[in-house]
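Suppose you are handed only these lines of text.
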Amino acid sequence: MDKILRINMSAAGGPTQSTEKAGEFAALGGRATTSTIVGNEVPPDCHPLSADNKLVIAPGMLSGTAAAISGRISVGCKSPLTGGIKESNAGGQAAQVLARLGYAAVIIEGIPEGDDLYKIHINKDRVEISVDNSNKLLDNYPLIEKLQKEYGDKVAYMSIGSAGERLMASASIACTDPELRPTRHCGRGGVGAVMGSKKIKVIILDDAGCKNRPPQDAERFKTANRAFVEGIRKHPVSGEGLPAYGTNVLTNVLNEAGGYPTNNFKTGQFEGGTKISGESLAELEISRGGKATHGCHRGCVIQCSGIYNDKDGKYLTKQPEYETVWSHGGHCGISDLDTIATLDYWDDNVGVDTIEMGVAIGVAMDGGLLEFGDGVGAINLLRDEVAKGTPLGRILGGGAGMTGKAFGVTRVPVVKNQALPAYDPRTVQGIGVTYATSTQGADHTAGYAVATNILKVGGDVDPLKPEGQIELSRNLQIATTAIDSTGLCLFIAFPILDQPETFQSMLDLLGGFYGIEMTGDDVAALGQKVLTLERKFNKDAGFGPEDDRLPSFFQTEKLPPHNLTFGVTDEELDQLYNWD
Amino acid sequence: MAEKQSLRVVAPLEQLSAFFLLLQQGVWLQAQIGCSVASLLTEQFNIEEKYIVERITTMFLDFKPIDDLETTYVKDGSTLALSSAMPGLVGTTMRRGSHLAAMRGEISYQNQQQVVSGAGRIKIKLFNMVMTELGARFLAHGVCLTNGELDTLLSEMDDSFWQSIEFASVDDQQVDYTSLVNRVRTGITDEEILLKVEFTS
Ligand code: SF4
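From them, the structure of the protein bound to iron/sulfur cluster can be written out as follows.
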């Protein structure tokens, strides 16, 4: 990854391209790369859909190598949803292919004049930016089917559906999986709308003739990779639970803990939870000839995904993730897996974030648009309103915050205007700290259960003191930011959390590849550096302490069955970034 | 009090999945209550300590995550949910003795007081791998279902279950599917029956 591709869509006479040396970015990746470039090059006060915003696409530090499970791709920009910096990442094939092509980043800037819609084709010999208006307003599934006739099935596609073209703030960028289905999405924060604003429908990545990136120390890298895979396979979460049931294995446990937000965060338990659990989902998938175990990209050794077939055994969608099952399920009072899978298909097809869209529908239900539990009504909203770009569809596609305003709802679960995911912060107060203070808006992946204990941070927290929650969240956010830069899937968190030797093998993978020594301190330093940059961008964009807050109903409305409110004070939240 | 009717079913192990929804929703078991969770699982349900330590790493008693099995006591009418290790920040947080337990401090089980001992019943919920590994054991122990719950279970089972079962009896009298359904539907909805399922491999 020794070069950066820069595309200027504003250039007079049509888009131009240039290639520059990757410099400091040759040994960086993912979120570290996107946030650094956005921080350095995008004016924080620009309009996210203006020519001043840039879309930065970066594979992870280990993408395109033989390292297991290293296929995350990051997309960065100023977010049209939050108004702050955004890094949104996804699996699929794109990261591996882009990295093998040698690009540390693709930076897309400017906005072309006129209404033409472009596609970008990148292979080892050239980059071609061309007008193709025949793709206009095609949604992701038909688009990819059409493009396959032209570019074949040995490439990876990154595309937007109609929601991205319509500049909806919940629009995603789809990345194709190994079967060339547009099922993996850089979902959060409206990155698809930024791509749409630049009039780019699709990027076709073709690595024919390219090889895996070679490590500096092949033997060390190979040994580390073997140990890393072994560690992943022997851990009960990454070796058994996730492959068998996917992330939706969490439904029963969250429901049991009373932390499963139900009917727009009114209660913490959903009566229909067992019907939509990971266990029930896997059973149904297998009985219909689908799959409960499937990788979103080649080289994934966990395979937390699956294939969901309809009643007739025909492919409907990929296995919906826990957050999707929740946002369309318990959050909306819907307990039917076929309805949830259909909504997941439409999210992927239109190209919207499943969390943002599900939460928006639930907020609209709270505002009286539909009854909670109305699955048919929910499908109609997505298929007949959002997908068609009607005024109501554009409100929903604008996200949960916009929907709440349109329907006069006071219980709107957003932070920095981004919808909260599937864990109620009144039950698990620590995650509320992360939701409130993350640079990204409410995000469950912003402070993942990364090995803070091994990094020797967060281990001695006093559970009786609120500063314990702050310290834990701080350290989790730092560690997660670093992992988001490696290209490794976050689900490696469990073996590296519990097995120090697997944590070491991850450091050795990085060290063997780049020919350096890496320590836990280096990982933490990288995370802190990136967070500092992101925080500065947000400050310059106008964010202040008042934006690092949960909506006030979390402090005033008790959540059954534990009847708790969120107890971390504003002063305590303001201690999170204690280094800047 | 009259003895409950007893429904005995002998079925091949591959039919265990027919009970998965029921096991997730929870089944009532007769047990000696007032003991610790550790003693309930090891002494009454014969689950090996090693299995508990290594596999049942997430447990909830009455919707609260448990950290110490020796000092957490089971009351009459308690609900005990058993799960293996979970992904995600919150999944990890819920784990027994998690170093992130501070994040769910307010919902953790903290009642250390001894409770009344004697005969009683508890609801057991089984999730994920624990469900596939221990489901057969709890069903063989015998679970109490109302006629209404049994009716729901029977109507959700597909034909293949009844075609594959080796034997079914109510109070030692052999029954077929149709007569069982009739019996259940004509019975009092809230009346309980003890279901024991023996799985053959
Ligand atoms: S574990 Fe799941 S999300 Fe991660 S790379 Fe594999 S399939 Fe994709």
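What can we learn from it? Residues A 69, 91, 295-297, 300, 302-305, 489, 491 surround iron/sulfur cluster (CB under 6 Å). The two ends of chain A are 32 Å apart (CA to CA).
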